[in-house]
Amino acid sequence: QQSNVTSYAATVVAITTLEVFAGMWVNAFIVCVLCIASVNKKTLNSNEKILLLLGCSRFCYLFISWVYSFLSIIYPNYLYVHPRLQLAVSSQSFFDYSNLWVSASLCVFYCIKIANFSNSCFIYLKVKIDRMVTGLLLGSEILALAIGIIAYDIAAKPHCNNHNSTGQGNFWKASIKMDKHFFPSFFLAGFGYAASFMVVIFSAVFLLFSLWRHKCKMQTNSMKSLSMDAHIKAMKSILYFFIMYSINFVCLVLKMVYVTKKESPVTFLIEVFQYAFPGVHSLILIFSNPKLEKTLLNILP
């Protein structure tokens, strides 16, 4: 049984390590390209600002999540010691929510920038969206910081019962107790996921409706519409994100169900997808951006 546990742990660490470093490379590429562009141009447009912050958040999230997962599997005695666990959980929560809300902000930006509606409020947002991006990103980070502080407080409570555990078996029991105690944080995560998911859904619906109206207007025109192309490209990006976001939300629900089952195949698949999500979606964003795509294709050979 001990050899099976060791084999399972080695498999999890090996696969997640490959995913994490691939995702970190993709997001580091985005950050480096945009930083170089900001130095050359002395400024970044609104889309590039969102992508830069998103790349930074995902890079840090993948690194901290990998360290947390590695220590919880290989060196649980080191992790479950005050205040290391609280710092790991709090940092992971902060960058996870930063990733989610900045991604949602990107969807809102695409929707407002590209969709066409005659509503006066929408027109006002369309004119002011570039000035509002900084405030939108700042609000996302403040919200993520608040969630990180709450997660730190939740993670600190189990230590009052577990700080005297010293044996290997006691550490395993302490780990299970902590996981059960983290149910409030899972519900908190569910609320954050659901709220940002609703933002993505509304952005996709408004953009789809705008695309349909624009298509109706262009039916009599045989010429190719640049606005139509912009609608379709933005719709593809949001649709990809919507699909991955849906799967990620299902993984969160399953993680709540299988939280104490350390060697379950479902737990393994959840970890595989959650580590793949930041890298795969960032790769989609690269191929949706002509500048990033061209740079990537130039350096790959």
From TrEMBL:
SUPFAM superfamilies associated with the record: Family A G protein-coupled receptor-like (SSF81321)
Keyword Transcription on entry: no
Pfam family, one: TAS2R
Record membrane topology: Multi-pass membrane protein
Gene3D superfamilies from the UniProt entry: Rhodopsin 7-helix transmembrane proteins
Membrane-spanning intervals of the chain: 20-39, 59-80, 100-125, 132-152, 186-209, 238-260, 266-287
Gene name per UniProt: Tas2r116
Family statement: Belongs to the G-protein coupled receptor T2R family.
Domain of life the protein comes from: Eukaryota
Localization: Membrane
UniProt source species: Ptilonorhynchus violaceus (Satin bowerbird)
Main location: membrane
Protein name, UniProt field: Taste receptor type 2
Keywords: G-protein coupled receptor, Membrane, Receptor, Sensory transduction, Taste, Transducer, Transmembrane, Transmembrane helix
MF (Gene Ontology): bitter taste receptor activity; G protein-coupled receptor activity
GO cellular component term, pick one: membrane
